[in-house]
Amino acid sequence: MLTVSDTAYAIAHIRAVEALRPPGERLFDDPLAAVFDAAGAHAAEGTARFLSLPFFADGIRLRTRALDDVVRDALRAGTRQLVLVGAGFDTRARRLDEVRTTGTRAFEVDLAPVLDARHTLLSAAHAPDAPWDCAVPCDFSAPDLASTFVEALVAAGLRTDAPAVFVCEGVLAYLDRASIERTLAAVYRACAPGSRLAFDYGAYFFAEDSAEPVVRAAGFDGYDEVTYDVLWRRYLPGDPHENAWVCRLAVATRTA
Ligand SMILES: C[S@@+](CC[C@H](N)C(=O)[O-])C[C@H]1O[C@@H](n2cnc3c(N)ncnc32)[C@H](O)[C@@H]1O
Predict the structure, then answer these.
(1) pLDDT tens, residue by residue, 50-80
(2) In this structure, which residue's CA is closest to atom 13 in ligand 1?
(3) Which end of the chain is more exposed for a tag (fewer CB within 10 A), N or C?
(4) Domain boundaries, the chain
(5) 117 within ligand 1 shell (Cβ under 6 A)
(6) Mutate to test the pocket of ligand 1, among 6, 166, 174 (most ligand atoms within 8 A of CB)
(7) pTM over 0.90
(8) Which atom of ligand 1 is nearest to the CA of 15?
(9) CA count, 13 A, side-chain hemisphere, 206
(10) Highest CATH level, class, for 54-254
(11) Which residue CA neighbors atom 22 of ligand 1 most closely?
């Protein structure tokens, strides 16, 4: 039976396929995605279902690149902590040179079995854990998340008195409303002023239409979002796909 964690294989597949494009057309380079893609045979049916959705693959490509740029901007501004919230098989902490060259600490938070699979597959591919990179098991649906999230990150070395960039990519769609609110509040508790949280979501996902009220209720005092037709015009040639406006990429900030 497919689990929510198997969705990580679908995303890895799209990132692996990016390598087949000519270099000038690639939105990112993710050499390790092929390792996870090759291990995802059991999830192939679910992956095929995702791929048959209109705009799914291009949407993942666009958000991957846009979130890479959010991380690059944060590092350029002096942030030295990266937290992947629902990391799955995201290899951003290794494939963005800036993470290593700036001495940024990276934390990958996900369910323990996913992190174990990630570790096993990378080790088998002779890509063992990078010294700046730390796995942090956590279940975002746990009722005590408010304390466990921050405690687990601090135990792993996160400094809550220094800014961090949090990336929550492709995750909120798998959480219920209470878990989303708890996750946003838990991230906020881990944020020093100057931190940012980037995430994606779809139109109609929140009863309030925009994620902004939910994000502000969690404590964040800054909020900005773009729809993917804007991202398409930024990163891809031609006119945006007709469904691109449905997807949104948001950046919440804690300024004070
Ligand atoms: C679609 S994948 C995206 C993975 C990664 N962010 C990426 O872009 O490659 C969704 C991820 O959310 C994680 N996830 C879903 N529900 C979760 C929960 N309750 N607690 C922790 N992680 C969860 C899954 O394990 C999976 O790795």
Answers:
(1) 889 989 999 999 999 999 999 999 999 999 9
(2) 86
(3) N
(4) 54-254
(5) no
(6) 174
(7) yes
(8) 9
(9) 16
(10) alpha beta
(11) 110
